[in-house]
Design a protein that fits this description.
Elements lengths: L5 E7 L4 E8 L1 H7 L7 H18 L6 E8 L4 E9 L3 E8 L8 H5 L4 E8 L2 E9 L5 H12 L4 E7 L4 E8 L7 H11 L4 H6 L2 H9 L4 E3 L3 E2 L1 E2 L5 H9 L3 H10 L3 E5 L5 E4 L1 H8 L6 E3 L4 E2 L1
């Protein structure tokens, strides 16, 4: 039985390289059902982004969420993928009704950028930014790690309409650094095909790629779709607008209606609710006059 909706970490025992493998099925299907996907290529980009967010979140120790956001001036306006420290994922897509490009750079257009934000309960937020100057998300992230980590890092990302999967390799800091070890592992991993990545279980895949190496494989960590929106978070976000702004909206509308962009949940606030939330006080929401709150 194929392993689905889980992350597996692994370590090469004879040299300082670590890896991760992930495959999404139900979690991907649940995340995308709330999004308008203009093409199969856009659907694939969302799957790849969700996989990448899981892989990247597993490289750090934190209690919070990692948000990966790609923005540009092309037909694909925004692509967001989020993974919490305990592998709860969600994502969103904003695009024109038709998206003609087949690769990320074509879809996102000029001046595209990738922003990675780590929000943690026990540390200051971290943010890294890199230009989208490659055709694939995997290559954009390779550039990001070269710029920010100075550690050799590679990702392989694949997605169809049913599955999304990825492989991550990263060199670890070591006093016994040998570049040829990394290069050999990278060459072996680069022989992976989309069909293998999407269909082989983790053990079989690692044996296929690295059967001559000693690889320690760790237990699966489940991944699931779960939106972190809540009425309390949205109340906080609305309260930040201030009384004047909220009252001006209520002059036009009997209620303030808020839709979560990630899961489609709907929240309604009447005048009594607004009075209550102004005495109280976060999430990405959209109110019915189409302004977006962050």
């Amino acid at each position: 039985m194929k392993q689905q909706d889980c992350l597996r970490r692994f370590l090469f025992e004879d040299f300082a390289v670590r890896g991760e493998w992930v495959r999404l099925q139900d979690s991907f299907q649940q995340a995308k059902q709330h999004q308008v996907l203009a093409s199969a290529a856009v659907e694939s980009q969302l799957g790849q982004a969700l996989v990448a967010a899981v892989l990247l979140s597993a490289t750090i120790k934190f209690n919070g969420s990692l948000i990966m956001q790609i923005q540009g001036s092309g037909e694909l306006k925004a692509l967001v993928a989020q993974s919490s420290h305990d592998r709860k994922i969600r994502g969103l897509v904003r695009s024109d009704e038709q998206v003609s490009g087949n690769n990320l750079q074509e879809m996102i257009g000029e001046a595209g950028r990738l922003v990675i934000t780590v929000e943690s309960e026990n540390a200051e937020p971290y943010q890294g930014i890199v230009a989208v100057l490659a055709n694939s998300l995997a290559e954009v992230l390779r550039g990001y790690f070269r710029q920010s980590e100075q550690l050799d890092t590679r990702l392989w990302l694949f997605a169809t309409s049913t599955h999304a999967a990825g492989l991550f390799l990263q060199e670890l800091p070591s006093d016994n650094h040998d570049q040829t070890d990394w290069e050999r592992i990278e060459i072996l991993a680069s022989s992976i095909t989309a069909e293998e990545m999407l269909n082989l279980d983790c053990e079989t895949l690692l044996h296929r790629l690295f059967h001559q190496e000693k690889v320690r494989l760790y237990d699966p960590e489940p991944v699931e779709f779960k939106c972190s929106c809540s009425r309390a978070k949205i109340s906080t976000t609305l309260a930040a607008l201030g009384r004047k702004e909220l009252e001006s909206i209520l002059i036009e509308l009997d209620n303030i209606e808020v839709d979560c962009q990630f899961c489609g949940a709907q929240y309604r606030f009447d005048k009594i609710d607004v009075e209550a939330l102004l005495a109280n006080p976060g999430g990405d929401v959209e109110i019915n006059n189409k302004s977006t709150l962050h």
